[in-house]
């Protein structure tokens, strides 16, 4: 009898946690679990047999993270096929003599911290195709796709898995209130997975058995596909360097009975569950049959794109009517804000439309720019554009701080990935990078739509005008234009570029991005000396200064250097008039008086 036929006639018990159990057996916490298939196969084999002895009749291969992205992070990408084949072989060997199925475990990909390039759907599918193909070649009976928190990569994995011809279980790890990234709810996910061809639909991980029980009940109402449930053993506690799960095997089994009564046909365990949990599960579920369900299958809703309307207010309100000028000022390294307040007042009087405030630029410690931005708006009466990086806060902290920024009246945000912490001055600081600039823009768009990253309502929209960065100095302008296209699709509404000194590059940028119809403010950083010019050209990433300008700055220092730098900036501004609707000024060394002179030049002429 096939796996699907068995599910229709009896409840099958899955196994429990692999990673946490291997760590409990003495594997170091920093070890790669999947690599154990090659270097400690006897340990993996032992765990499989413990679950089979406990009563599991569906055991998973130790391959959850054996995909190209996770293995590449530790230099094992060339052994991807070998690790998956061996994982399948070990589980197959353990199951010999048992009336059990072997499931190939497939988990989500990872993005390297600080990496902005997003994998396309085709690239993602191909990575999963390699893993699924190796597991199928190794002799698994089915594939389990698990712990996905985003539907798009799960659909890619589902496409690849179905190509093997094996049955596919698609398990989503739902977040708070049964939602996933982007706000989709349990019912919508179940419908999408059924439409995508999943043979079994379910949920795993999460907060614990009670939460998964609620998810199963909701899925059972909208799909007639067999359902799977693999809950965690409750919330973990951190004790003596390890996560400890307190849910007892008896409680776990009691909730599992309710899951079966709600419609689950395949029940196992996720993080924190042990062979003892599975033993109690097998004892309680033995002889149970899948529940008869009353299903009303609704049609999938028409594709809806939730995005905030373009904001034509604030510093962009005059776009197309007169040149818009923004100026960047650095936050102080200490508590004295007098210079930035004074500079903001001078720049406002000169005609500047907004003040940019970076967030710990070059990973150097400076005052927090959200609180400072609020102070500048209050004291100087000019709008601020707060730069927000993905380096310093995790997803939780970013959402909280952005909500606080909205509360304080910050209305413009420039979303950037941020320089890595290692280049800065703070020894021991680490980079977070839960998000990159693309996904941060998505988050900002969600906040504008009045929901957080889980899709939960916030009561109102954040009201942000979302900006993004563009580097016109790269070798391939079309690549940068493609990146900008994705940022605009995610919700960006204006662009500020790296400092640009070459008119040919400006024209190339405008040509490549004309179809996006988005305000672009080219960056202008006035030079002040030959030394300053050579430093920017040779040492600052993203800045390229043409040879003729470097020649003009030769031997120029102090006042002469400032005069020549301003002359070069004015010439660029004059040549760019009519091509762009505004400029983004970055005064060197915080010398706002230089920027003020250029602001007056732009506005008066």
From TrEMBL:
GO cellular component: cytosol
Any GO BP annotation: tetrahydrofolate interconversion
Entry keyword set: FAD, Flavoprotein, Metal-binding, Methyltransferase, Oxidoreductase, Transferase, Zinc
Requisite cofactors: FAD; Zn(2+)
SUPFAM superfamilies linked to this entry: FAD-linked oxidoreductase, Homocysteine S-methyltransferase
Binding site for Zn(2+): 205, 270-271
Domain Hcy-binding: residue ranges: 1-285
Database matches in Pfam families: MTHFR, S-methyl_trans
Metabolic or biological pathway: One-carbon metabolism; tetrahydrofolate interconversion
Example GO molecular function: methionine synthase activity
PANTHER family: BIFUNCTIONAL HOMOCYSTEINE S-METHYLTRANSFERASE_5,10-METHYLENETETRAHYDROFOLATE REDUCTASE, METHIONINE SYNTHASE
Protein name (database record): Homocysteine methyltransferase
Organism encoding this protein: Geobacter pickeringii
């Amino acid at each position: 009898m096939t796996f699907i036929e068995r599910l229709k006639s009896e409840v099958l018990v899955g196994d429990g946690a692999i990673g946490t159990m291997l760590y409990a057996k003495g594997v170091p916490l920093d070890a790669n679990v999947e690599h154990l298939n090659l270097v400690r196969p006897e340990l993996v084999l032992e765990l499989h047999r413990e679950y089979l002895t406990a009563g599991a009749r569906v055991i998973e291969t130790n391959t959850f993270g054996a995909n190209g992205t996770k293995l590449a992070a530790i230099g094992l990408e060339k052994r991807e096929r070998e690790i998956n084949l061996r994982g399948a072989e070990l589980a197959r060997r353990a199951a010999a003599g048992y009336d059990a199925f072997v499931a190939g475990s497939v988990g989500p990909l990872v993005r390297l911290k600080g990496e902005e390039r997003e994998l396309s759907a085709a690239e993602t599918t191909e990575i999963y195709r390699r893993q699924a193909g190796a597991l199928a070649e190794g002799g698994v009976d089915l594939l389990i796709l698990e712990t996905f928190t985003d539907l798009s990569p799960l659909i890619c994995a589902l496409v690849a898995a179905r190509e093997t011809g094996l049955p596919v279980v698609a398990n989503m790890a739902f977040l708070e209130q049964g939602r996933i990234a982007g706000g989709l709810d349990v019912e919508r996910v179940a419908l999408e997975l059924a439409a995508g061809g999943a043979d079994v639909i379910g949920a795993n991980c999460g907060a614990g058995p009670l939460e998964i029980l609620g998810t199963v009940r909701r899925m059972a109402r909208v799909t007639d596909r067999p359902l799977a449930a693999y809950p965690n053993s409750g919330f973990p506690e951190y004790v003596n360097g390890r996560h400890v799960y307190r849910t007892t095997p008896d409680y776990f089994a009691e909730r599992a009975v309710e899951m079966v009564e709600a419609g689950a046909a395949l029940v196992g365990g996720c993080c924190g569950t042990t062979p003892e949990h599975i033993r109690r599960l097998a004892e309680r579920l033995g002889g149970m049959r899948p529940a008869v369900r009353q299903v009303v299958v609704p049609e999938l809703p028409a594709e809806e794109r939730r995005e905030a309307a373009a904001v034509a207010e604030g510093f962009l309100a005059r776009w197309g009517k007169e040149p818009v000028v923004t100026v960047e000022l650095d936050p102080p390294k200490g508590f004295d804000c007098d210079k930035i307040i004074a500079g903001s007042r001078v720049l406002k009087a000169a005609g500047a439309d907004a003040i940019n405030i970076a967030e710990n630029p070059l990973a150097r410690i400076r005052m927090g720019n959200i609180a400072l931005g609020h102070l500048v708006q209050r004291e100087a009466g000019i709008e601020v554009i707060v730069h927000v990086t993905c380096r310093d806060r995790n997803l939780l902290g970013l959402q909280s701080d952005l909500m606080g920024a909205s509360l304080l009246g910050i209305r413009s945000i420039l979303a950037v990935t941020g320089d890595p912490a290692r280049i800065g001055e703070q020894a021991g600081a680490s980079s977070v990078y839960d998000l990159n600039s693309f996904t941060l823009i998505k988050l900002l768009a969600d906040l504008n739509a009045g929901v957080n990253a889980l899709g939960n309502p916030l009561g109102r929209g954040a009201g942000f005008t979302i900006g993004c960065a563009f580097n016109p100095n790269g070798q391939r302008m079309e690549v940068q234009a493609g990146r900008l296209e994705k940022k605009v699709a995610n919700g960006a509404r204006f662009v500020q570029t790296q400092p640009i000194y070459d008119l040919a590059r400006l024209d190339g940028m405008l040509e490549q991005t004309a179809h996006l119809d988005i305000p672009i403010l080219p960056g202008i950083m006035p030079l002040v000396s030959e030394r300053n010019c050579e430093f920017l050209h040779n040492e600052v990433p993203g800045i390229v200064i043409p040879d003729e300008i470097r020649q003009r700055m030769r031997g120029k220092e102090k006042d002469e250097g400032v005069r020549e730098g301003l002359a070069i900036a004015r010439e660029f501004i004059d040549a760019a008039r009519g091509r762009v609707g505004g400029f983004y000024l970055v005064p060197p060394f915080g010398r706002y008086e230089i920027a003020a002179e250029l602001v007056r030049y732009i506005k008066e002429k």
